[in-house]
Every structure is written in structure tokens, then in C-alpha cells.
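# nightly structure sweep
# worker-07 picked up a monomer target from the shared queue
# config: single-sequence mode, recycle default, output format = C-alpha cells
# input follows
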Amino acid sequence: MGSHDELPNLQFHSPDEDLLMKTLAVTKSFNDLYMDSKTNSLAIHTGKEAYADIINAAIRTIRGEMQLNIEGGIPYMETVFNNPSRVVIWKTEVEEKIESFDFVNAITDFTYDIDYDKHTLHYKATIETIDGKVTIEG
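# output follows
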């Protein structure tokens, strides 16, 4: 074979599909992988769904959790669940993490609620990405 013109064209999907962000899909409640019932393989998210998965995974990573990057992650214990609570530092860390992704244009809304009696934190953010708005919750 002397040129690329002689190679067979084995295109099974649209070239535009290669430009989409792809991630393994996870359940919203437990962050578990699951099977796609149509393809009988691991479920895949693309585009805005993938962006939301990536951001949520980054926000849910606790500082010190990653063995090869113990400084990575969000400092929950040192901020939110500390006495006194330093929620402003946590919020700033989360916003900086979200804005560090190339596909993020802006955070348009960010709210959170802490229940100190139950030791829980809930957040919700609306983020403008290169493909449109996504909302994440955790």
C-alpha cells in the first residue's frame, strides 16, 4: 500500500461523534457505573452529560483521597466540617475547580445548604459550558 487512499474506509459513526466529550456514566445517587440496557455494555455519557459527570467527580473527590496526588481534591474536613466552619474557603475551592476545566465558560448559579446536625452538605450549581448549560447537584 503506497498511499492512504488505498486504505479501506471503516467509518462506523459520524466524525462529529469524535469531537464529543465521553465518560463512563455513573448513577446520580451512589456514583456507580451501570450497564446500558440497549447495548448491554457499560453506559456512556457524551457532551453536557459527560461534563456534569466530570465536574461532579472532581467536586466529590476529598483532598488526600488520591494516593498519587494527595493535594488534589476539595478540602471538606478542613473547611465545611471543621469547627468553626469555613464554608467560604470550601466554596472558593469548588468554584476554582469547576472553572479549571477547558469546557467551562462560567458558573451562573451556585447554592449550598449545610445541616450540621446530620453532618450533610448539599450543593447545586448551574454551569455554562461550551455546549450549553448543565446543572449539577450533590
